[in-house]
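Input record, target 12 of the design panel.
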């Protein structure tokens, strides 16, 4: 595992092929507990090509100087990602209206 949060990745290589290829990363929180959002693609062996983009939120805890994954939530499709974005935007807009 990684010692620095910036070095955490979902890229996974097997037999010389990135079976999980990271396309992007956002660090949502740092510290002894870190939360990251990743954009990635999985290798489809049958098609010999990468599948659709996917998203995952992962929580890591730093122990013994290294980050270890503690939990994850996989966003299964672009539609689910869009629904999540829309829900958060609605809730944040509602909260902004209430505080004024």
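The sequence produced for target 12 reads:
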């Amino acid at each position: 595992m990684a010692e620095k949060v910036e070095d955490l990745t979902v890229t996974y290589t097997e037999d010389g092929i990135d079976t999980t290829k990271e396309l992007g990363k956002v660090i949502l929180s740092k510290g002894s507990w870190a939360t990251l959002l990743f954009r990635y693609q999985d290798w489809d062996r049958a098609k010999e090509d990468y599948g659709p983009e996917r998203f995952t939120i992962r929580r890591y805890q730093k122990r013994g100087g290294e980050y270890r994954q503690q939990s994850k939530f996989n966003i299964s499709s672009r539609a689910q990602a869009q629904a999540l974005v829309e829900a958060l935007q609605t809730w944040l807009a509602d909260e902004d209206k209430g505080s004024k």
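The CA atoms of residues 34 and 60 lie 5 Å apart.
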